[in-house]
Amino acid sequence: MKQKIGKKYLRNKTSASIFILWLIFGFLGGALIGGLIFKSSDENVIKLTMVYSSEKASWISESSSLFQSYWEEKRLLDPTLKPINLDFQPYGSGDSLISLLNGEIKPVIWSPASNIWIPLLNSKWSQINDDDALIAPNFTRLIYSPVVIAVWEEFYDDHPFNGFSELHDLIEENPDLIKMAHTDPRASNSGVMATIMMVSAYLNMDPSKITIDDISNDDLINYMRIIESSAIFYGKSTGFLGKYMKDQGPDALQVAILYENLVQDYCIPAQEKYGQKIKAVYPIEGSLYSDHPFCILDGDWISDEQKMVAEEYLSFLQRDDMIAKAISTGFRPINNSLLEDPTISGIYDLSFNEDHGVTSDPSLIIELFPPTDGYVIARIPDLWLLTRNKD
């Protein structure tokens, strides 16, 4: 009977509960926020608008200031160029997706935390507009932070594991041993990615190939329930979860699924407070990248001038000195050949090392690729709802 219920739930459920809630919050929040940003601009000024995930806020803030100066230098050489007005706003990935679908925000550039959101936006956009045209036809990847399993080093020394399958076995064999946490997939990018990585580990399949039949598998559901049985809570913010792990110590939470850059941020403070580090385990099954893609949207609200400035901004971000600034804030470059530059590799070595709980060797991180089917991605929160710990 359980098998039939599980399959029916995941096959036939339209994710209405989640998507309708998103829409409600999107209309309420988007109406407020959308009214404050992306207002029409002066004809003599080109307004470049962007919504982006907050994890890269310090890099975006610095790059936007430098790009403004860069543009003014271009104008000195070419007086026909109009001045620009940059309106860049941090926004949760799920919230920005819903506000885009609602029409409450109309940015030129959209940069969610991961490219898992792009097929979902394109799918929902096509459904709402009854049009096969893609609102986000292309994206540019420059930096990333892999999703890792964060663990206190003494716990890891006593109970080593190399990925989700071994973590599953450890939990199954020792039901009361581990206190684990990850964020809520309905509210957080890392929660969606954590759930997909668990599914991928069980299926021994790259997430890009996962189908709705695969996630309707009752053996998978039981596998997920065992891992989730160790969860003590599901937060809305990955940053808060990392801070909680660091502040509350190894007795409160042994394992958390975080972005690698948060392990870097909290490793040394944790050691100073508790005498041991928080370290990153890179799952042997592979890691999804929080790769912060930049999409120039194909919206009818975007002028040719705005598109031109957007393309110029993305080219500016690809400069070596701009990528170096991102590396200094804890992100890895998509283009590893940049590390052949002694200046960039020196900056990289300061952040990516065992002292910060992470590996210096990017070849040890196996990249997984997210599902390309927006319908499958939309079902991931449903799968988690079936398997989460409700105690």
Q: What does this molecule look like?
A:
The chain is an alpha/beta fold and 391 residues long. The protein folds into two domains: 13-142 and 292-351, 3-Layer(aba) Sandwich (D-Maltodextrin-Binding Protein, domain 2); 145-290 and 358-387, D-Maltodextrin-Binding Protein, domain 2 (3-Layer(aba) Sandwich). The chain is 49% helix and 14% strand. The chain contains 16 helices and twelve strands. Strands 4, 5, 6, 7, 8, 9, 11 and 12 form an eight-stranded mixed β-sheet that branches. It has a four-stranded mixed β-sheet with strand order 2-1-3-10. Helix 3 (57-77) links the parallel strand 1 (46-52) and strand 2. The longest helix is centred in the N-terminal third of the chain and has 21 residues, at 57-77. The protein is globular. Mean pLDDT is 90; it is low at 1-5 and 13-36.
